[in-house]
Automatic annotation (TrEMBL):
It comes from the Eukaryota. Residues 1-80 form the GST N-terminal domain. CDD domains: GST_C_family (cd00299), GST_N_family (cd00570). Gene3D superfamilies: 1.20.1050.10, Glutaredoxin (3.40.30.10). It holds the Pfam family GST_C. InterPro entries: Glutathione-S-Trfase_C-like (IPR010987), Glutathione-S-Trfase_C_sf (IPR036282), Glutathione_S-Trfase (IPR040079), Glutathione_S-Trfase_N (IPR004045), GST_C (IPR004046), TCHQD (IPR044617), Thioredoxin-like_sf (IPR036249). This is TCHQD class glutathione S-transferase. Residues 111-254 form the GST C-terminal domain.
């Protein structure tokens, strides 16, 4: 089994936490979207959406995080031979968490100069890939159009406001739930928690804890609790602290700087 992902990809974090919680062995492949690796011809042939993560088990390839996590659940059941009770609450929370798209929220809270630089670089990559693989040109063109549409959306204050309101509503619902249960769908850690925790990590990465987490005491308590889980430490924690964090960020920054210099000369 192979997982194509990146440590700072929110959906990748969801899947990696689920894999670690289930104790499923897999081969890890890092694909950095900020350097255009997800637009490479080989990766694009496998996954024309160019989104992360991608999970492959033999000929079976799955793209969406929620679909991967549900597949892992079924796989774990098959390997154990047990027949677990159906938990509709877990499924409902997974759907609720999945309904919030973090893309616009992340972009609108990223400094404009960095956002503009990466956007321009990705457009250049897409145009270059069209020439490199003419048979995929129409699909690359779809991604190019999406890139321009995203640039327009991120300038719209109403879209930004809607994303923030949807996140606040989700967090309020979680706060209310955690006043009744230890974890999101009960007193046991579940795939719903694997889906939700990376959202808190994204808020932390954007330095917005005070606005969204600290003001919700039950979520803050829950967040501090899950940070002690091995799955969190492996999938998220080690990339938020110490040399691992700076190595990942430095590699991306160095690559982009070199590309900029090469274009100048």
């Amino acid at each position: 089994m192979q997982l194509y992902h990146h440590p700072y990809s929110l959906d990748s974090q969801k899947v990696r936490m689920a894999l670690e919680e289930k104790g499923i062995d897999y081969t890890s492949y890092h694909v950095n979207p900020l350097t255009g690796k997800n637009m490479s011809v080989d990766f694009f042939r496998m996954n024309p959406s160019a989104k992360l993560p991608v999970f492959q088990n033999g000929a079976h390839v799955i793209y969406r995080a929620i679909d991967i996590i549900q597949y892992l659940d079924r796989l774990a059941v098959h390997l154990s031979g047990e027949i677990p009770a159906v938990n509709t609450e877990v499924h409902q929370w997974m759907q609720k968490v999945d309904a919030w798209n973090p893309k616009m929220f992340t972009l609108t809270h990223t400094p404009v100069k960095y956002r503009a630089f990466v956007s321009k670089f990705i457009r250049r990559v897409l145009i270059a890939r069209m020439a490199e693989a003419p048979d995929l040109a129409s699909m690359y063109h779809v991604k190019l159009r999406e890139a321009y549409e995203t640039e327009d959306k991120v300038k719209d204050p109403e879209i930004m406001k809607q994303s923030e309101e949807e996140l606040s509503k989700l967090l309020d619902d979680v706060e209310a739930q955690l006043s009744k249960t230890k974890y999101l769908a009960g007193d046991e850690f579940s795939p719903a928690d694997s889906m939700f925790i990376p959202i808190l990590a994204r808020i932390t990465l954007l330095d917005l804890d005070e606005e969204y987490i600290s003001c919700r005491p039950k979520i803050l308590e829950y967040y501090n609790l899950v940070k002690h889980r091995p799955s969190y430490k492996i999938a998220i924690g080690k990339y938020f602290n110490g040399w691992k964090k700076y190595r990942s960020l430095f590699k991306t920054s160095f690559f982009l700087c070199v590309r900029t210099l090469l274009r100048r000369y």
